[in-house]
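Hi R.,

As promised on Friday, here is the backbone we talked about, encoded as structure tokens. Could you run it through your design pipeline when you get a chance and send me back a sequence?
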């Protein structure tokens, strides 16, 4: 019996200390009321506060469990996103970036256009792998910035960070040579020129063609690496 304990404070301490581990099931309200020697309304209020704090989750017909279900799903989703494969990443980019280039063609300001040409020139002049990748990412982010949509910029920040993963870098590096660099530079220039000309349809198609080319190369490289590992 826990007759001298405040149910809210006691349960909170038990959860915070780990004595009640994550996903463990709490006794029913009736049993908790008997343990603490308080009315069920007091227990119900304590559980409501703990639920609001994210310390427990309550399922009708199943009971009350330690841990917050929405937070758990969010954490799992975030972990899965950060462990996404290069193929998953290029599929996401194919959904997002062609439309993004089209919007940029409509909304880019003169300073945005100048920045795109600056990034393009830096990419074309790069000779080291790290510098090449830096200006590739920066160019694609600059296109997002030219949309003047803060949410699109945030999403592109995430994709840019994912492009720094070892798996992405390894696949890209394994396929990069002078001929491919020239090809990418040509496709980049087509995108930038379409945005400069305020042609959203052409910008969309140029970005789509560019990323389809990247996808084909990445898939071939991934298959080659799998064969080498066998």
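Update: got your reply. Pasting your designed sequence below so it's all in one thread:
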């Amino acid at each position: 019996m826990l007759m001298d304990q405040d149910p809210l404070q006691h349960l909170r301490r038990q959860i915070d200390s780990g004595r009640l581990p994550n996903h463990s099931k709490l006794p029913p309200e009736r049993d908790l009321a008997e343990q603490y020697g308080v009315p069920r309304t007091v227990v119900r209020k304590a559980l409501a506060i703990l639920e609001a704090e994210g310390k427990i989750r309550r399922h009708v017909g199943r009971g009350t469990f330690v841990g917050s279900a929405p937070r758990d799903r969010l954490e799992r989703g975030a972990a899965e996103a950060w462990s996404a494969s290069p193929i998953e990443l290029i599929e996401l980019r194919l959904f997002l970036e062609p439309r993004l280039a089209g919007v940029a063609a409509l909304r880019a300001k003169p300073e945005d256009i100048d920045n795109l040409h600056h990034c393009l020139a830096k990419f074309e002049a790069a000779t080291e792998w790290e510098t090449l990748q830096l200006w590739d990412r920066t160019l694609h982010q600059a296109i997002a910035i030219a949309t003047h949509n803060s949410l699109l910029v945030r999403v592109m920040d995430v994709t840019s960070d994912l492009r720094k993963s070892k798996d992405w870098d390894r696949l890209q590096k394994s396929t990069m040579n002078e001929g491919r660099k020239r090809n990418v530079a040509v496709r980049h220039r087509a995108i930038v020129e379409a945005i400069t000309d305020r042609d959203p349809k052409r910008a969309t198609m140029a970005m789509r063609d560019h990323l389809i080319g990247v996808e084909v190369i990445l898939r071939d490289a991934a298959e080659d690496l799998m064969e080498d590992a066998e």
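One thing I noticed while checking it: The first strand starts at residue 56 and ends at 59.

Thanks again,
M.
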